[in-house]
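Notes from hallway chat w/ T.B., transcribed later so I don't forget. T.B. wanted the structure written out for a chain they're using in a teaching module, and asked if we could keep both sequence and structure tokens in one place. Agreed to drop them here.
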Amino acid sequence: MDKKLLTVGLFMGLFFSEKSFAQFDTTFYIKYHDMMGVGIFQSVRNNSITLEKLNVPDDTVPHSVYYKVNGRTITGFFVDYDKIFFALGFNLFKNNDPRKGTTENSNYVLQFGTNKLILEGGYRRYKGFYDDSTSNYISPFTDSIPYYQDPVMAHKNIKLKAFYFFNDEKFSYNSAYFGSFRQLKSAVSWMLGGNIYYNRLKSDTSLIPYYARELFDNYGYLNEVRAIGFSFGGGGSGNLVIAKRFFLNLTLTVELAPEWRRYHYFNNEETKPFYVSASSDVRTSFGFNSRKFYFLFTSINDFSFDTSKSLMIEGNFLNVTFSVGWRFHFENKSTKWLKENKIYKMI
């Protein structure tokens, strides 16, 4: 199928050892290793980019542009069993708005780990943006006037993310975002976070709309920014649980990000500076988690702040998902054979 019409999220919960689960406190959380969860989900994915000219002499004059995508709704189903989680989503509902244009997006995710260590590998690409700040530059701006659109502008991000939790004996991050665990008592954990990533923002002529190019001086015809880097930092995560079923999670990390950049201009000039930037990951989840029925409402915000001497590029990937699932006992000769398999036990 055309990847413009299909989005696949693939999560494989490949846990490192059976021993890692023998050490958790079952009065705080439990794992449903002999039950299969199935359900449906609906997800909205968005990408926004702010380009701001720094050190301007007059702050009252507009000096930034705010790109957004005309996001689509992804609908799909998932299956969750022991160490495996699989989700498949489709763009069933198109969001066409002549004032904002259309956006193509591809989003693939692979996750594995335990309640102590989680690794996430992801590929995200959005093509087709509009400037939500058009009204700051064009007057009069009415409901019949379209926003400035750049249909060829594309944002690509490839990232490997790691979370390490210190209180994995009592705290389960997975219980707030996946269906194979259930937190019974409130608990919190300090955590470490890190990323290795490749990021590219590109257009044909310029990343800056025609009406703002003079305000951005030398960056007026900047048409591509590439960055390769890594980030490291820390934060915390906590589950507030009521009546062993209702829960609220907040996860926050703040990280420093040394990165090697490449600025390319329309006249083929380029520079390759090195900067230390910042990034942040903000995640929230709330819902209901009982022995069989559960629903999760999750929000994942991935922020980056790429600052140079006179230009700030702030990016945000947002994924909001609502999931409804049902667990049922699932054990047979095949599953028992799988769990006893030496390779399966090792991963």
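Follow-up for T.B.: The helical segments are 19-22, 174-177, 333-340, 342-346. Might be a good example for the class.
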